[in-house]
Amino acid sequence: MNTSTLSILLGLGGKCLLNWVLVFLQRRHICRSFVGVFSVSLSVLDTAMTLIFVSIHIHAEGPLFLLDWQLTRYHTCLLVQILGQVHSVLQWPVVLVASLDHFCTVSLPPASFRVKWIVYSFVTVLLWNLTALYVFLLSDFNPVLEDVSHYQINQCWVFHSTQILQVVTLLSLTQACAVLHAVCHSRLSENPSLKNQITNQSRTLSRRSFVCQVLSMFLSTWAPLLIFLAVLLLLPVRIPSYLGLNVAWLCFLNSFLIALVLSVVCPTPQFAQGLAAVPADSFCEWRVKFNLAAEDRT
Question: Which residue has the higher pLDDT, 122 or 53?
Protein backbone atom coordinates (compact mmCIF):
# COMPACT_ATOMS: atom_id res chain seq x y z
CA MET A 1 0.00 0.00 0.00
CA ASN A 2 1.28 3.49 -0.88
CA THR A 3 1.62 5.85 2.09
CA SER A 4 2.73 9.46 2.06
CA THR A 5 6.18 10.18 3.48
CA LEU A 6 4.68 12.73 5.87
CA SER A 7 2.35 10.07 7.30
CA ILE A 8 5.30 7.72 7.74
CA LEU A 9 7.28 10.41 9.58
CA LEU A 10 4.34 11.22 11.85
CA GLY A 11 3.77 7.54 12.57
CA LEU A 12 7.43 6.95 13.40
CA GLY A 13 7.55 10.07 15.55
CA GLY A 14 4.49 9.01 17.54
CA LYS A 15 5.90 5.51 17.90
CA CYS A 16 9.22 6.83 19.26
CA LEU A 17 7.42 9.10 21.72
CA LEU A 18 5.26 6.22 22.97
CA ASN A 19 8.32 3.96 23.21
CA TRP A 20 10.28 6.34 25.42
CA VAL A 21 7.29 7.18 27.62
CA LEU A 22 6.77 3.49 28.38
CA VAL A 23 10.49 2.92 28.91
CA PHE A 24 10.52 5.83 31.39
CA LEU A 25 7.49 4.45 33.24
CA GLN A 26 9.27 1.10 33.62
CA ARG A 27 12.68 2.59 34.46
CA ARG A 28 12.92 0.92 37.89
CA HIS A 29 13.11 -2.61 36.51
CA ILE A 30 13.37 -2.14 32.74
CA CYS A 31 16.61 -4.15 32.61
CA ARG A 32 15.41 -7.04 34.81
CA SER A 33 13.94 -9.00 31.90
CA PHE A 34 14.78 -9.70 28.29
CA VAL A 35 11.67 -7.84 27.13
CA GLY A 36 12.82 -4.72 29.01
CA VAL A 37 16.33 -4.75 27.55
CA PHE A 38 14.96 -5.40 24.08
CA SER A 39 12.49 -2.52 24.52
CA VAL A 40 15.37 -0.11 25.22
CA SER A 41 17.27 -1.30 22.13
CA LEU A 42 14.12 -0.98 20.01
CA SER A 43 13.55 2.59 21.24
CA VAL A 44 17.15 3.57 20.46
CA LEU A 45 17.11 2.10 16.94
CA ASP A 46 13.69 3.51 16.09
CA THR A 47 14.78 6.96 17.26
CA ALA A 48 17.96 6.80 15.16
CA MET A 49 15.95 5.77 12.09
CA THR A 50 13.39 8.51 12.68
CA LEU A 51 16.12 11.15 12.92
CA ILE A 52 17.57 9.92 9.62
CA PHE A 53 14.15 10.11 7.96
CA VAL A 54 13.54 13.62 9.29
CA SER A 55 16.95 14.77 8.04
CA ILE A 56 16.27 13.37 4.57
CA HIS A 57 12.81 14.97 4.52
CA ILE A 58 14.17 18.38 5.54
CA HIS A 59 16.99 18.28 2.96
CA ALA A 60 14.81 16.83 0.20
CA GLU A 61 15.64 19.68 -2.18
CA GLY A 62 19.38 19.64 -1.50
CA PRO A 63 22.12 17.02 -1.06
CA LEU A 64 22.48 15.22 2.26
CA PHE A 65 25.59 13.13 2.81
CA LEU A 66 26.23 10.46 5.43
CA LEU A 67 29.73 8.96 5.36
CA ASP A 68 30.19 10.14 1.74
CA TRP A 69 26.86 8.53 0.81
CA GLN A 70 24.23 10.84 -0.61
CA LEU A 71 20.82 10.21 0.93
CA THR A 72 17.62 10.92 -1.02
CA ARG A 73 13.92 10.09 -0.72
CA TYR A 74 14.66 6.75 -2.34
CA HIS A 75 16.56 5.83 0.82
CA THR A 76 13.61 6.90 2.98
CA CYS A 77 11.35 4.38 1.24
CA LEU A 78 14.06 1.73 1.21
CA LEU A 79 14.83 2.12 4.93
CA VAL A 80 11.13 2.05 5.84
CA GLN A 81 10.68 -1.24 4.01
CA ILE A 82 13.84 -2.74 5.52
CA LEU A 83 12.81 -1.59 9.00
CA GLY A 84 9.36 -3.12 8.58
CA GLN A 85 10.80 -6.41 7.33
CA VAL A 86 13.23 -6.64 10.25
CA HIS A 87 10.45 -5.90 12.75
CA SER A 88 8.21 -8.57 11.19
CA VAL A 89 10.93 -11.22 11.31
CA LEU A 90 11.74 -10.37 14.95
CA GLN A 91 8.23 -11.08 16.27
CA TRP A 92 8.54 -14.83 16.78
CA PRO A 93 12.17 -14.88 18.03
CA VAL A 94 11.25 -12.29 20.68
CA VAL A 95 8.28 -14.41 21.76
CA LEU A 96 10.44 -17.54 22.06
CA VAL A 97 13.29 -15.87 23.95
CA ALA A 98 10.93 -14.02 26.30
CA SER A 99 9.03 -17.25 27.03
CA LEU A 100 12.27 -19.04 27.85
CA ASP A 101 13.35 -16.14 30.07
CA HIS A 102 10.07 -16.21 32.04
CA PHE A 103 10.18 -19.98 32.34
CA CYS A 104 13.71 -19.86 33.78
CA THR A 105 12.72 -17.05 36.16
CA VAL A 106 9.79 -19.06 37.54
CA SER A 107 11.41 -22.50 37.58
CA LEU A 108 15.10 -21.91 38.40
CA PRO A 109 16.91 -20.24 41.32
CA PRO A 110 17.34 -16.49 40.74
CA ALA A 111 20.60 -15.27 39.19
CA SER A 112 22.37 -12.03 40.00
CA PHE A 113 21.22 -8.85 38.27
CA ARG A 114 24.60 -8.31 36.61
CA VAL A 115 24.68 -11.78 35.07
CA LYS A 116 21.11 -11.47 33.81
CA TRP A 117 21.77 -8.02 32.34
CA ILE A 118 24.86 -9.27 30.47
CA VAL A 119 22.95 -12.27 29.10
CA TYR A 120 19.97 -10.13 28.05
CA SER A 121 22.21 -7.58 26.34
CA PHE A 122 24.15 -10.28 24.47
CA VAL A 123 20.97 -12.03 23.30
CA THR A 124 19.45 -8.71 22.21
CA VAL A 125 22.47 -7.74 20.11
CA LEU A 126 22.62 -11.26 18.67
CA LEU A 127 18.94 -11.17 17.68
CA TRP A 128 19.25 -7.84 15.89
CA ASN A 129 22.34 -8.98 13.96
CA LEU A 130 20.96 -12.39 13.01
CA THR A 131 17.69 -10.85 11.88
CA ALA A 132 19.46 -8.26 9.72
CA LEU A 133 21.62 -10.99 8.15
CA TYR A 134 18.53 -13.10 7.48
CA VAL A 135 16.67 -10.21 5.82
CA PHE A 136 19.58 -9.25 3.57
CA LEU A 137 21.01 -12.70 2.76
CA LEU A 138 18.39 -15.42 3.18
CA SER A 139 14.90 -13.96 2.88
CA ASP A 140 13.01 -13.27 -0.34
CA PHE A 141 12.62 -9.59 0.55
CA ASN A 142 12.45 -7.34 -2.52
CA PRO A 143 12.11 -3.56 -2.07
CA VAL A 144 9.38 -1.81 -4.05
CA LEU A 145 10.55 1.59 -5.36
CA GLU A 146 8.97 3.93 -7.88
CA ASP A 147 10.79 4.47 -11.17
CA VAL A 148 10.78 8.26 -10.94
CA SER A 149 13.16 10.98 -9.85
CA HIS A 150 13.68 11.15 -6.09
CA TYR A 151 12.50 14.76 -6.19
CA GLN A 152 9.04 13.51 -7.24
CA ILE A 153 8.70 10.80 -4.60
CA ASN A 154 5.97 11.77 -2.14
CA GLN A 155 4.73 8.29 -1.30
CA CYS A 156 6.36 5.01 -0.30
CA TRP A 157 5.17 1.46 -0.66
CA VAL A 158 4.60 0.02 2.83
CA PHE A 159 4.35 -3.68 3.66
CA HIS A 160 1.90 -4.89 6.28
CA SER A 161 2.48 -7.25 9.18
CA THR A 162 0.33 -10.23 10.12
CA GLN A 163 2.67 -11.59 12.80
CA ILE A 164 0.98 -9.72 15.65
CA LEU A 165 -2.38 -11.38 15.03
CA GLN A 166 -0.66 -14.75 14.55
CA VAL A 167 1.16 -14.40 17.88
CA VAL A 168 -2.00 -13.38 19.76
CA THR A 169 -4.02 -16.21 18.22
CA LEU A 170 -1.46 -18.89 19.09
CA LEU A 171 -0.86 -17.62 22.63
CA SER A 172 -4.60 -17.34 23.24
CA LEU A 173 -5.15 -20.93 22.15
CA THR A 174 -2.30 -22.10 24.39
CA GLN A 175 -3.68 -20.15 27.34
CA ALA A 176 -7.14 -21.61 26.72
CA CYS A 177 -5.68 -25.12 26.71
CA ALA A 178 -3.89 -24.44 30.03
CA VAL A 179 -7.11 -23.21 31.63
CA LEU A 180 -9.09 -26.14 30.22
CA HIS A 181 -6.51 -28.59 31.56
CA ALA A 182 -6.65 -26.99 35.02
CA VAL A 183 -10.46 -27.15 35.09
CA CYS A 184 -10.83 -30.69 33.76
CA HIS A 185 -7.83 -32.27 35.49
CA SER A 186 -9.87 -33.71 38.36
CA ARG A 187 -12.32 -35.43 35.99
CA LEU A 188 -9.56 -37.07 33.97
CA SER A 189 -7.69 -38.53 36.95
CA GLU A 190 -8.69 -41.77 38.59
CA ASN A 191 -7.38 -42.58 42.06
CA PRO A 192 -8.06 -45.89 43.78
CA SER A 193 -7.11 -44.71 47.25
CA LEU A 194 -9.40 -42.37 49.17
CA LYS A 195 -6.42 -40.61 50.77
CA ASN A 196 -4.75 -40.13 47.40
CA GLN A 197 -8.06 -39.01 45.93
CA ILE A 198 -8.46 -36.29 48.57
CA THR A 199 -4.86 -35.17 48.11
CA ASN A 200 -5.14 -34.99 44.33
CA GLN A 201 -8.46 -33.15 44.53
CA SER A 202 -6.83 -30.57 46.81
CA ARG A 203 -3.99 -30.12 44.36
CA THR A 204 -6.43 -29.82 41.48
CA LEU A 205 -8.50 -27.18 43.28
CA SER A 206 -5.33 -25.31 44.18
CA ARG A 207 -4.11 -25.44 40.58
CA ARG A 208 -7.49 -24.41 39.23
CA SER A 209 -7.68 -21.46 41.63
CA PHE A 210 -4.14 -20.41 40.74
CA VAL A 211 -4.72 -20.48 36.98
CA CYS A 212 -8.06 -18.68 37.25
CA GLN A 213 -6.52 -15.94 39.39
CA VAL A 214 -3.62 -15.50 36.96
CA LEU A 215 -6.05 -15.23 34.03
CA SER A 216 -8.26 -12.78 35.94
CA MET A 217 -5.30 -10.51 36.79
CA PHE A 218 -4.17 -10.48 33.17
CA LEU A 219 -7.62 -9.75 31.76
CA SER A 220 -8.30 -6.99 34.28
CA THR A 221 -5.37 -5.06 32.79
CA TRP A 222 -5.27 -6.01 29.12
CA ALA A 223 -8.89 -6.85 28.19
CA PRO A 224 -9.39 -3.61 26.15
CA LEU A 225 -6.32 -4.35 24.03
CA LEU A 226 -7.46 -7.94 23.47
CA ILE A 227 -10.82 -6.64 22.26
CA PHE A 228 -9.04 -4.21 19.94
CA LEU A 229 -6.88 -7.01 18.51
CA ALA A 230 -9.98 -9.18 18.04
CA VAL A 231 -11.58 -6.36 16.04
CA LEU A 232 -8.43 -6.12 13.90
CA LEU A 233 -8.63 -9.85 13.32
CA LEU A 234 -12.24 -9.67 12.15
CA LEU A 235 -11.97 -6.48 10.09
CA PRO A 236 -9.77 -6.07 7.00
CA VAL A 237 -7.47 -3.66 8.83
CA ARG A 238 -3.74 -4.00 8.25
CA ILE A 239 -0.93 -2.86 10.52
CA PRO A 240 2.09 -1.23 8.80
CA SER A 241 5.11 -3.42 9.41
CA TYR A 242 7.30 -0.53 10.60
CA LEU A 243 4.79 0.14 13.44
CA GLY A 244 4.09 -3.49 14.38
CA LEU A 245 6.98 -3.91 16.81
CA ASN A 246 6.79 -1.28 19.55
CA VAL A 247 7.22 -1.05 23.31
CA ALA A 248 3.46 -1.00 23.97
CA TRP A 249 3.11 -4.31 22.13
CA LEU A 250 6.12 -5.70 24.03
CA CYS A 251 4.57 -4.70 27.38
CA PHE A 252 1.38 -6.55 26.45
CA LEU A 253 3.39 -9.51 25.21
CA ASN A 254 5.39 -9.57 28.44
CA SER A 255 2.25 -9.80 30.58
CA PHE A 256 0.70 -12.37 28.24
CA LEU A 257 3.76 -14.61 28.39
CA ILE A 258 3.97 -14.32 32.19
CA ALA A 259 0.34 -15.41 32.48
CA LEU A 260 0.97 -18.26 30.06
CA VAL A 261 4.10 -19.51 31.82
CA LEU A 262 2.46 -19.32 35.25
CA SER A 263 -0.57 -21.23 33.96
CA VAL A 264 1.54 -23.96 32.38
CA VAL A 265 4.16 -24.35 35.11
CA CYS A 266 1.73 -23.55 37.94
CA PRO A 267 4.28 -23.39 40.81
CA THR A 268 1.56 -23.16 43.48
CA PRO A 269 3.52 -24.59 46.45
CA GLN A 270 6.58 -22.51 45.59
CA PHE A 271 4.50 -19.33 45.43
CA ALA A 272 2.76 -20.12 48.69
CA GLN A 273 6.13 -20.53 50.42
CA GLY A 274 7.69 -17.52 48.70
CA LEU A 275 10.23 -19.68 46.82
CA ALA A 276 9.22 -18.78 43.26
CA ALA A 277 9.93 -15.44 41.60
CA VAL A 278 7.55 -13.60 39.29
CA PRO A 279 9.08 -11.99 36.17
CA ALA A 280 9.20 -8.19 36.15
CA ASP A 281 5.97 -6.57 34.97
CA SER A 282 4.99 -2.91 35.26
CA PHE A 283 1.33 -3.36 34.40
CA CYS A 284 0.00 -6.50 36.11
CA GLU A 285 0.36 -7.14 39.84
CA TRP A 286 0.81 -10.87 40.14
CA ARG A 287 -0.48 -11.33 43.69
CA VAL A 288 -2.12 -14.70 44.07
CA LYS A 289 -4.26 -15.58 47.12
CA PHE A 290 -3.87 -19.17 48.24
CA ASN A 291 -6.17 -21.63 49.95
CA LEU A 292 -3.94 -22.46 52.92
CA ALA A 293 -5.99 -25.50 53.89
CA ALA A 294 -5.55 -26.99 50.45
CA GLU A 295 -1.86 -26.17 50.50
CA ASP A 296 -1.41 -27.86 53.87
CA ARG A 297 -3.03 -31.06 52.56
CA THR A 298 -0.71 -31.12 49.55
Answer: 122
